[in-house]
Task: structure prediction
Amino acid sequence: MAKRWTRNSVVERQGRRLNLAGIGRTRFFYDALRVSPSYELARLESVGLLSGRETLPADFDTVRAVYDDLGDVTLDLEEWVERFAFRAFSHGGKAPSVTSLGVMRYGADPASVSVEDFAASTWVAQGERSTLMAAIPLGMPKARILKQIADLLDQVQPTDRDTSPVVPKYKVESDRRIVTGARKYLRCLSIKATHVDEPLWKIGLRAKLSRTYSGMLDPQNPPPKHKEVDYKSSLKILTSRALLRGHMIAENAARGIFPSYAKCEHALPVDYEFIKERR
Result:
């Protein structure tokens, strides 16, 4: 089961701190992909585990293309962010800064200074900006080092100075209310998966879909009997709609769109057992 991170979680990865708040709302895209049956088929195909008996969606080529970009969401969130999200969403929450690649010493293994590691992580996290690589011999006067670096910068060609942000291939809706609603609908799916035999109105209570009906159906202060049936019926309708929306959000995410609960024409049926395994 993948770890769940709070809004301001900070995790350690290869000795570096990664603030997950810095990736913005893309972490909810990850949550949606994790419960999409279409996206899971793309993952199984990528590792050669499709049996050939599965029913593939008619637009599976689209799902495959999204999987090629957004990758394996069975990975923990922080590893997924580094391997896929930084590049796909064109940001990593890290401001550009001068980065040490290590110190090369006489007799030491030159491999300890790794440009490849920098290119695969920090460089991507900072937006893949044009970057001047230079070797600075230690022991030189600082003033001379700074002058020589300035000279190197002056020699950089205009074509290499473009620092305009990369246009992201994938985007997340910027309206906080829409994203909050998507999170609520996805949470409702997860709760249904772990309480699959409960009536829908109880699922709605657990998911806190409605403050109004949650208050009216408080077991400590039950409503009049003639009203209770109406309240449960209304909450059942809200829950049914929330589950459908959560499912559409997950299936649209598998096609590169998030968050959207518009009808996904080629969505596969919801699979609560699969969702339960992914929680």
Observations:
- The chain is about 50% helix and 5% strand.
- Residues 10-88 form one domain.
- The beta strands are 10-13, 16-19.
